[in-house]
Amino acid sequence: MFSQLFSVFLTYVYTQNCYIREQAFTLRWPVRANTASSEGLDAKSDKNKTLWRHSMMRVHAKRAGVLLSGLMLPALSHADWGMNMVPGVTGTSNEIFSLHMTILWICVAIGVVVFGVMFWSIIAHRKSDDREPAHFHENTAVEILWTIIPFVILVAMAIPATATLVDMYDTSESDIDIKVTGYQWKWKYDYINDDFGYFSNLATSQDEIYNRLEKNENYLLEVDNPLVIPVGKKVRLLLTANDVIHSWWVPEFGVKKDAIPGFINETWTRVDEPGIYRGQCTELCGTYHGFMPVVVKAVPQEEYDSWLAEQKAAAEKERELTQKDWTMDELMERGEKVYATACAACHQADGSGAPPAFPALKGSAIATGDMAGHLDIVVNGKPGTAMQAFGEQLNEADLAAVITYERNAWGNNTGDMVTPKEVFDYKNQQ
Amino acid sequence: MSAVADTHAQAHHHGPASGITRWLFTTNHKDIGTMYLVFSFTMFLLGGTMAMVIRAELFQPGLQIVQPEFFNQMTTMHGLIMVFGAVMPAFVGLANWMLPLMIGAPDMALPRMNNWSFWLLPCAFLILVSTLFMSGGAPNFGWTFYAPLSTTYGPPSTTFFIFAVHIMGISSIMGAINVIATILNLRAPGMTLMKMPLFVWTWLITAFLLIAVMPVLAGVVTMMLMDINFGTSFFDASGGGDPVLFQHVFWFFGHPEVYIMILPAFGAVSHIIPAFSRKRLFGYASMVYAVGAIALLSFIVWAHHMFTVGVPIAGQLFFMYATMLIAVPTGVKVFNWVATMFRGSLTFEAPMLFAVAFVILFTIGGFSGLMLAIAPADFQYHDTYFVVAHFHYVLVPGAIFGIFASAYFWLPKWTGHMYDETLAKTHFWLSFIGMNLAFFPMHFLGLAGMPRRIPDYALQFADFNMVSSIGAFMFGATQLLFLAIVIKCVRGGEKAAAKPWEGAEGLEWTVPSPAPYHTFATPPEVK
Lengths: 430, 527
Prior knowledge:
The structure holds 2 protein chains of 2 kinds.
Chain A (H helix, E strand, L loop, with lengths): L1 H27 L12 H32 L18 H34 L15 H29 L7 E8 L2 E6 L4 E5 L5 H4 L17 E4 L4 E7 L4 E5 L4 E5 L5 E5 L5 E6 L12 E7 L1 H23 L4 H15 L1 H4 L17 H4 L2 H10 L15 H13 L11 H10 L1
Parallel strand pairs in A: 1-5, 4-10
Antiparallel strand pairs in A: 1-2, 2-3, 5-8, 6-7, 9-10
Helix pairs in contact in A: 1-2, 3-4, 7-11, 11-12
Chain B lengths: L1 H10 L8 H6 L3 H29 L10 H36 L7 H20 L27 H28 L12 H32 L13 H18 L2 H15 L6 H14 L15 H13 L1 H15 L8 H24 L1 H7 L3 H31 L5 H27 L14 H30 L36
Helix pairs in contact in B: 3-4, 3-5, 3-17, 4-6, 4-15, 5-6, 6-7, 7-8, 7-9, 7-10, 9-12, 9-13, 9-15, 10-12, 12-13, 13-15, 13-16, 15-16, 16-17
């Protein structure tokens, strides 16, 4: 009952807000609505009034409608405000949605009865009405009843919940297996049957995050390389993490599973609707936890097949890069880019770091000292610190480029250069 | 027993010592209770200020006020300070003040330990809060401090955090021992267990929960200490350890912990509702059994915090069923309160307002708890704002409103003055509106897909976040009013009678208001 009242209140606040916004719009842009016309000033303001009246009417109608639906359907989905869970696009997400709605309505019903009795007492049984209190207490029949009835409701609830859970845990007979690895703060997708994989980074610019640019509609929910899956296929996801615990969530799939270092978790999904689906990491994983979205692109089978072929060819080409003969300039150029995506978040673009957690590379003993030590820390990481083992994250060309870059940028002018082949040999001698 | 009372009678005409030594060396349960309450309110304001920082950053999408790193420190410190600094000490303060008065005892059973367990707390929190000023910053891994984020990847101040938790734990365990010793040994003649006031019952059970789980917390932070400083690998997978083990151990402490924070409020509300309904509590015995059942069940539900961790399906089902089962005894309690109000003769002074809001809003928190218990649905709710809404609904109108209700109920007894009823009612209504405005929209945010513990969010979450922030500022600012009300009440006001509430019952109302420095030197007789 309370939640009902409250949702009515909220919707009221909302429509009020709409109204203010629309009004602000008309006030701020009085001319914009009729720029195409050549009417005079008076005509313009007349037209503005009409516009304003129309918007008022719209708001009133909206408010009435919202109030009504607020009364009838508390906490039900309201398109603009996203008040409810999405039914989603998979069988699992739909089953979860129906469980959610069932238990929600059971709670609402119990709430109406319990709070009904309570408000009845609050209104009707006041001392100010000279009421004498009743003296009843303890009634075994009532007490047994109010223990048994909730128990029966719970059993009724547990049955469909168990069925859904069993289904969610059935990862057998998958069509495609994809390994999902959580890193601080990005995801890696490995198509383990096809021998390629790639990182998926946040694509939102710092300018948008720091309010220097207007935010686009997918603000914080956009990546450079989304996970691509075909529609209508059972996709099994094998989740793990490289550093701390992350959690991979796409609300519209009804799939959320923790990615834990040292563990491999399994889950699955089958998406029938092509489209782009967005989610986020949901386990606190450090500073930029709020900035590692999950984006999945579900495409028809033919499109998936051609995408797959492209990726495999590109992966083959990457491997060839290792064999190529590189010049210093090529390595520096490539290294600067790799540094910006893989290293700059901690060690900063100018190599100054953020001590003590993230040491400076500018003039550091490692970046200007022995090459083997530098290779070791980049390839294997430094256990016990945030320094990751980049040997598995970057290919040989990128590793060689970034090490070369670090040894020659920001005044670390060692003149040293390491080639992808040398990195390859270093990794394989271990 | 009587021999002790007799010899003590010679020397007991002394009042409190004067100056700072009164507070440093006191062994008086009333002084210690007051210190706990003042400490708790200070921490409440500090933790609340951090919440204001969080809500200010979340007022709009984008980063405006703080950086993500500091935001994480705020969420972590807010949680730790509110749980360990505000809610738990407030209940210990109430226990110190009221348990001896309710059972007719002259003081707590172990008064010197009582002093020691209080004074450990400011030390612990001095250490904890000082981490904010250390290089690398304060703990930033959430109040649940999951490994390896808190071990391998934690800031250097983590060791200080661990030490602070150890000290708090020692304080809590000593406090719990004291409560048990007092209740089991110092009850007035004739007060059998099943005649004890419910606040005493709920505290007795809470104390056992504390003794059972605080050592587990100490264990888990010690394992962290070892991992960080002594090269062990309890939680480090690359050394053969297990990050999930951390969560099992933590939540084995964590789940009973949430009942530690709510059971004493259950007890207090079970006094306040009958008092202002002028009608006996509907089912005393079933209330006691329900609290016992909740306490027992709280030990076998911990993995419901870990449904997405990858627990095998058999475990998943077990923890889902066990969790759902908690709804039964909780329902019994709510039904009892409602049945007590039914056909009573109700008035709505501030304690009753807070108590009624407690029942309604705690029940809403219980409903979302039941929804969260449904494991498949939890895959969608887990680690979203729906969870944030849920636990703030059980903790703010649950624990905090329970504490406010108790404070207003017993303030006349503590100070000898009636508080300003108009101001208190204003405090209630502003808190009530602010709290709902702050936390109800969080349900919608969570269902719409907003993860918790993020400093910035996608645009579709903007409107409700703004509403929530406005509510939070309102709730936060209102709490200063409570401070003013209490100060006003301490300094003066209408004289309070020994029993200022018409319908109140219990031994605490048989002593004068304010309660003399020493009470029940000779135990009363309970029929």
